[in-house]
Structure to design on (231 residues):
């Protein structure tokens, strides 16, 4: 209520959870996982973040198709903080999804705000070419379609999630070990949030593979876990 009140008391803390831990409050981990309806959608986080402590159940759909699919954009290039080719590919996959799976809600997560904005631009262009799909972009639609980035997707969930990594080789084919929010303190938690938003399926779209991430050039947990996830 008092806008002039100083916030210096929480400076240096990554989250309110960290503030609570610093005060010595009792820590209790939730073990019941409700979102992912298929084992593959939570398996990575259960191993790397929760020490296999989550109670999960196999799905009858696990024998059909993979819950997590990887699509490599071979000609994708990360230049000027954006990957145009990958953004265009992601937008195309959005249109394909609404044509093939109209009853499944969809969300897109980009690893940076620049990539998020570019994907939105590419989708806007394709919407003009596919007016019959306009209902799927209605703001009033239940579980409406969204395109967000790592910083603002907390709390969201959809039937299907598409992840656009964006980062990858530049015009010269070199990959810098700079992955935006993932390089910062707590970046690994943002990755965990991003990879656990889907109920039924996830499509990971990237212009690089796990072996392109050289861990000898970075000490941050975010890139290390991104490599593990891509692998």
């Amino acid at each position: 209520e008092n806008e002039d009140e100083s916030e210096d008391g929480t400076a240096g803390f990554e989250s309110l959870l960290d503030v609570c831990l610093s005060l010595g409050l009792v820590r209790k981990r939730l073990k019941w996982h409700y979102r992912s309806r298929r084992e593959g959608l939570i398996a990575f986080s259960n191993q790397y973040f929760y020490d296999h402590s989550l109670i999960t159940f196999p799905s009858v759909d696990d024998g059909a198709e993979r819950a997590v699919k990887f699509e490599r954009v071979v000609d994708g290039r990360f230049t000027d903080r954006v990957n145009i080719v990958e953004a265009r590919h992601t937008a195309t996959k959005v249109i394909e999804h609404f044509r093939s799976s109209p009853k499944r809600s969809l969300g897109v997560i980009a690893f940076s705000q620049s990539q998020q904005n570019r994907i939105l631009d590419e989708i806007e262009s394709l919407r003009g070419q596919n007016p019959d799909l306009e209902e799927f972009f209605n703001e009033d639609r239940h579980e409406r379609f969204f395109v967000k980035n790592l910083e603002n997707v907390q709390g969201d969930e959809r039937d299907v999630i598409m992840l656009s990594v964006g980062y990858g080789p530049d015009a010269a084919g070199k990959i810098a070990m700079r992955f935006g929010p993932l390089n910062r303190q707590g970046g690994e938690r943002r990755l965990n949030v991003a990879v656990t938003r889907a109920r039924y399926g996830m499509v990971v779209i990237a212009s690089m593979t796990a072996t392109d991430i050289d861990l000898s050039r970075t000490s941050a947990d975010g890139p290390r876990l991104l490599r593990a996830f891509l692998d």
